[in-house]
Amino acid sequence: MARLDSIVRTDLTRKDLERFPVWVWGDDQDANQRNPIWPPKLDDDEWGADFVAAELFVALQRLDGYVVGNPRRPYAYIVYIGDDSVSFNVSFRYSGDGISEYHRKGIAAIAAALGVAEFRPFPIAYRLKVLDPEGKVVEGVIGSNL
């Protein structure tokens, strides 16, 4: 397994994650550079992989996206709605006056895509699209304490 330094992205698209489901920070983290890992496998050394393709589950519906951070304890996720994406991090507030316009629009877009009146970013269930080193499915809940 190796980091493919010849492939660099600053934003990960659905297509990027279909081709390479595991990504790590590149050499220039300040520039948001990311590189894929190939083959797409979570070895013991890679449990710190930074970006892993995942299915996210809301209101009994599945959304495509990826989780950010340690795959067993991610701290953020990105979900795709059509050609757009929206990200959520457990350290931010997503209600009240402190919510950004970006997140307000993202929450409305997800609610519309799901056909629900209201969408709350946390907690959210996820399942990785890559198996753990023992060949088992990795799934959990992000923000279960929020």
Secondary structural class:
alpha+beta
Mean pLDDT: 87
Q: Note the gap between the termini.
A: 36 Å
Q: Nearest-angstrom radius of gyration? A: 15 Å
**SSE series:** EHEEEEEEHEE
Number of strands: 9
Biggest sheet architecture: 9 strands, antiparallel
Number of helices: 2
Helix content: 10-25%
Tell me the overall shape.
Answer: globular
Task: Report the sheet-strand fraction.
Answer: 25-35%
Domains (count):
1
Q: Low-confidence runs (pLDDT<50, min 5 residues)? A: none
What are its keywords?
single chain, 146 residues, alpha+beta, 9 strands
Would you mind describing this structure in some detail?
This protein is an alpha+beta fold and 146 residues long. It has one domain. The chain is built from 2 helices and 9 strands; from the N terminus they run E-H-E-E-E-E-E-E-H-E-E. Strands 1, 2, 3, 4, 5, 6, 7, 8 and 9 form a 9-stranded antiparallel beta sheet that branches. A hairpin with an 8-residue loop joins strand 2 (22-25) and strand 3 (34-38). The longest helix has 14 residues, at 101-114. It is globular, with a radius of gyration of 15 Å.
